[in-house]
Amino acid sequence: MKNIDGLMRSFIVNLGEESIVSFYDKIPKQGKKLRSKLIFEIAGSSEQTSMLAAIIEMIHMASLLHDDVIDDALIRRNVNSFNADFGDKTAIMMGDILYSCAFSQLTLLPQSAAEFVSKAVASLSAGELLDVELSKIFNTDKDKYFRMIYCKTASLIEASAYAAAVLKGFEGRDFAAYGKNLGLAFQIIDDVLDITSSDKMLGKPALHDFKEGKVTLPYLYLYEQCKEKDKKHLMTLRKKSLSSYENTWIKDKMEEYGIIMLCTREAKYFGDKALNAIGKYNIDGLNDIVRQMVERDF
Ligand code: FPP
Ligand code: MG
């Protein structure tokens, strides 16, 4: 993975602009590199695999730079976000630079891989747009939630798996299905952890989604299942800085209605679907990735 960091940095150094390299070095880089792990598990080690992994990580990094501006997020992975330290304008432009750099490298990969990845980036942006739109209302439409998490999160994981399969000469569609379902499971667990985990474990404020107006799957299910009186109260808590009494109320209701178990089961369902898609290839590492995703606590 060290190699990937070096490769990403070399894309930036090759631009020949010292100030960009200096800003790049200040972008926090403590990510889990899930997408790279996935790519190496599928395609094995080679120069082209490393290129693909670096391209995908760079797109991911660009999307988080923009996302933190959009979400007004000041902390990510327990450190200041880039926008918190250098301002929104620099964060947006650095995101644009990373994204463009990744794209020029992408043109060097096989066409079907490049095409799938570039479509996924359009999907990422569509997902972020939908996320912003949905957070303006108390969204109770589960299909819209799934559409949004597919675009915002699963599409790039799907494209990573597809492109890695193309490099290895495997059937791209099987791996795309694996990546898509893994991505859906990943985002559902992310939405659960926002409620069950702590600031320290998450590296960002916990119980934050609802404050941002986001009715994630646990809230959607809680709303669907709770009594009329609780529904009314729940609606008053969205987009609000919650007192510790209100935080506890939400967690207690999630417990009372078995919502966390329900969502975890749904994530597991997508995890199993992911594994079924690539069962015939017998790649143990891909089972481990699904397990780690569903059982993680940060
Ligand atoms: C995190 O969501 C956001 C994403 C995974 C995707 C963001 C995509 C864009 C901003 C589109 C632009 C893309 C490029 C390449 C420039 P979240 O806010 O739910 O997660 P978080 O809690 O980690 O912030
Ligand atoms: Mg965000």
In words, what does this structure look like?
This protein is mostly helical and 298 residues long. It is 74% helix and 1% strand. It is built from 15 helices and 2 strands. It has a two-stranded antiparallel ribbon. A hairpin with a 2-residue loop joins strand 1 (75-76) and strand 2 (79-80). The longest helix has 27 residues, at 142-168. The relative contact order is 0.10. The chain binds farnesyl diphosphate and magnesium ion. Magnesium ion binds at residues 67, 71, 73.
Brief overview, please?
The chain is mostly helical and 298 residues long. Helices cover 74% and strands 1% of the residues.
CATH architecture of the largest domain: Orthogonal Bundle
β-strand percent reads under 5%
**Total domain count:** 2
What is the terminal separation in angstroms? 20 Å
Task: Give the strand tally.
Answer: 2
Shape, please? globular
Q: Average pLDDT across residues?
A: 96
Low-confidence residue ranges: none
**CATH homologous superfamily of the largest domain?**
Farnesyl Diphosphate Synthase
Helix content: over 70%
Strand order of the largest sheet: 1-2
User: In the CATH hierarchy, what is the class of the largest domain?
Assistant: Mainly Alpha
Rg computed from alpha carbons, rounded to a whole number of angstroms: 19 Å
Order of helices and strands: HHHHEEHHHHHHHHHHH
